[in-house]
Design a protein that fits this description.
- The protein is an alpha+beta fold.
- It has nine helices and twelve strands.
- Strand 11 and strand 12 form a beta hairpin.
- Helix 1 runs antiparallel to helix 2 and helix 4 crosses helix 7.
- It is elongated.
- The N and C termini lie far apart (about 65 Å).
Length: about 350
């Protein structure tokens, strides 16, 4: 029996789209390869030395042939480009309401955390039929998150965030690989995605020992670091107010704007003077080495929960925004470090 499949099974909503583009490209390549080499072989035999063939007055050029050979590949290339671009955007644009999972790659493991706080290493449990968005960064070198059955692959980079999403269509266990050479134990940086029925997934969540939810941990961390001293409304406000900030566009000193997204928040923590918000002074110190990558992701989760979209949802009755930070509970030990411009 043939027990080594050439291709992994299709287990996500985008897998069929990716395979379609791939097989069409293979078919086009095979077709033109056969045409070109077939003609080479045909003319090599027909006009070989010693054959009785009319070689007088050979044509110097053929504009019709040239137009065909330019127009046909151009048309095919543009069609494939448009098709594959649509497929690309369908892979990297997560649908609204996707479950967000944070991923931190490090030599040599994957550290994942679900919205309810459940942490996993080299494993991720997800429900079937639910869109899952992965927000990823690296703690050390470049890694690459690859799940063949889902046809998703995304580099995981130090110092910035990348994302990809999937929606599993079948229950089961699927391989997870790192496909960027990341050191001596690169080949051992493997894991698995476990897709479960929704009821089974809820039972698993109930039986797992969940840590503090990322948004709650982010709120606690911001309070412990004393960030509220400068970033809450009041007479002591020396930086932009956290509530309603994430998801907006910040006006910068000297002109220009910047979207307040994951990368902006991370840069604000690590290199706070890179982009100074209009109306504030560059007085915030760097937190490099004081907050881990997981801690930054938790702060981002909290800012998202009280961001512009959360506030709009609460105003329209479609959701409830968490209560703002209580400045009275802020510790004074982080007051000097919390003075900020972001």
């Amino acid at each position: 029996m043939w027990s080594f499949p050439l291709f992994p099974e299709q287990a996500s909503t985008v897998a069929g789209k990716v395979d379609s583009v791939y097989f069409v490209l293979v078919a086009i390549t095979a077709f033109f390869t056969l045409v070109v080499y077939g003609m080479v072989f045909f003319f090599a035999v027909k006009y070989r030395r010693g054959t009785n063939v009319d070689r007088s007055n050979p044509p110097a050029s053929s504009h019709k042939l040239e137009m065909l050979w330019i127009g046909l590949p151009l048309t095919i290339s543009l069609a494939v480009f448009a098709w594959s671009t649509g497929t690309y955007f369908s892979i990297y644009r997560a649908p609204a309401g996707a479950m967000e999972v944070t991923v931190v790659g490090k030599q040599w493991m994957w550290k994942l955390q679900s919205p309810n706080g459940t942490r996993e290493i080299n494993e991720l449990h997800v429900p079937v039929g639910r869109a899952v968005k992965l927000i990823m960064t690296s703690q050390d070198v470049i890694h690459s998150f690859y799940v063949p059955a889902f046809r998703i692959k995304q580099d995981v980079l130090p110092g910035r965030y990348t994302s990809v999403w999937f929606e599993a269509t079948k229950t089961g266990t699927y391989h997870l690989f790192c496909t960027e050479y990341c050191g001596t134990q690169h080949s051992g940086m493997i894991g698995k995605i476990i897709v479960m029925e929704p009821t089974e997934y809820q039972a698993w969540l109930s039986g797992s020992s969940a840590d503090e939810a990322p948004a709650a941990a982010g709120k606690r961390l911001i309070t412990q670091m004393g960030c509220v001293t400068c970033h809450s409304a009041g007479s002591g406000q020396r930086g932009p107010k956290f509530e309603g900030l994430f998801g907006t566009v910040a006006a910068l000193n000297g002109g220009g704007t910047a979207p307040v997204d994951e990368d902006y928040v991370r840069e604000s923590i690590i290199n706070p003077r890179a982009k100074i918000v209009q109306g504030y002074e560059p007085i915030m110190p760097t937190y490099t080495g004081q907050i881990t990558e997981e801690g930054i992701l938790q702060i981002i989760a909290y800012l998202k929960s009280i961001g512009a979209s959360a506030g709009a949802a609460a105003a329209t009755g479609t959701g409830t925004a968490p209560a703002p930070l209580d400045t009275a509970t802020a510790t004074t030990t982080g007051t000097n470090a919390a003075q900020g411009n972001r």
